[in-house]
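Trying the structure run again after the queue cleared.
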Amino acid sequence: MRTFWRFTTIIFCIVFFSCTAEKQKLNVLWIVADDLGADLHCYGESQVYTPHLDRLASDGVLYNNFFTVTAVCSPSRSSLITGMYPVSIDCQQHRTQYKKELPDDVEPITKYFRDNGYFTFNGDYRNKDNGGKWDYNFIAENIYDGTHWSQCPADKPFFGQIQIFFPHRPFKRDPERPIDPERLEIPPYYPDHEVTRRDWADYLEYIQLLDKAVGQVLKQLEDDGLLSNTLVIFMGDQGRPHVRGKQFLYDGGTQTPLIIRYPDGKKAGILTDRLVSNIDLAAATLNYCEIDKPSHIQGIDFLNDDSPERQYVFTMRDRRDETVDRIRAIRSKEYKYIRNFYPERPYLQFNAYKKFRYPVLTLMEVLKEQGELNETQLLFMEDVRPAEELYNLKSDPFEIRNLVDDSNYSQTLSVYRAAMDSCLTTYDMGKYPEDVAEIQYADSLMKNNYAKWMKGIGLNENTSNDIFLEYWEKYLGISESN
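Done. Tokens:
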């Protein structure tokens, strides 16, 4: 009998310590693209070639309804690393000069991973010794241990991020697989013009280069023997870098891919319409690694099949560079409700970054002056905007038919107004108005940047739209081809 119990104890210890060792090997890798809309082949964009991301999707779970809390990087990334709405931690303004500490008890989630024995890193896919993009709107020092998983001690698991700048402007073309602009489907709120088509094709070609970069990261992970025991999560930090996309709360600005590959290929080939916000990534990743989620984290553990599904995602926009604004939105699977706090202002208040980088913006300004924009394209060019917007996403996926004044949707409007009021009361703790010093700093910085940028291309800050459009046509290679 004594021999039996000794044998049983030995077997138990072997199993116990084997399981413990296996748990210690669980790694997590976030791969984060910059300014990526849901425009991959596996998301239905037939003209783009993304074999590595398509393979990742076939080996994992593809989320059709993943949205970022905002449509610009610094507040979005601040939410991603804290699991908190930017308006709950006063990080909603873009790239504040006078950064503050996070509120009491709120920490970047790297702290919780470190406390549980994880090595943390944030790196650039091009060089394992280089740090990757942070862009947080709070004081953040020494929150990562390194820049690549190869620096992780052998006895530790890792939680890390690899940052890929693509497809952030300026775009780069893919010489191996050029895309024919004439074969593209252009959203109806843009003019069907050769500048629009060439710019859109360049964006898609840059996504193809992004796909190659993701392929390199995955291959290195596999070559290092880590792919089979690493949870891989691919996402964008926000949506498309296009007019009516980035900085705004339409789907073009807030929808981005989310693809999750489980260790050992579990849950492969699944497509889900579940609503997910990027503040959910913190909660879900911590819980997946069996790390207790701090009570202040506002995200939902969507990786747990038993957790309740979101009814809607809450998104927000505030000052972006020098452009002061305040917009809030709620999106369900069926409707989008937007509240504009500055209805007396145009959507397209001047923004130096967008004016310098977006050729279609100048194109639309020229065509408006010439009376060549249709009713749909003029909506975003008006001098004022409605205080509220309501869209039926099933029948109007491009969000161009505002239903606020449609009596058939009065009850729906009331429901979403109430939901918005609840979100504002519960989450919107940001300081308004923002400190004047921040606004003045941003205004001066961007004014000087714009003059410098324009000088760099042989123009100046007072260049007319007609001349600027000629520059874009030459830059895009259109004028030479005509």
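The chain has one domain: 25-481. Worth checking whether this holds up in the mutant runs.
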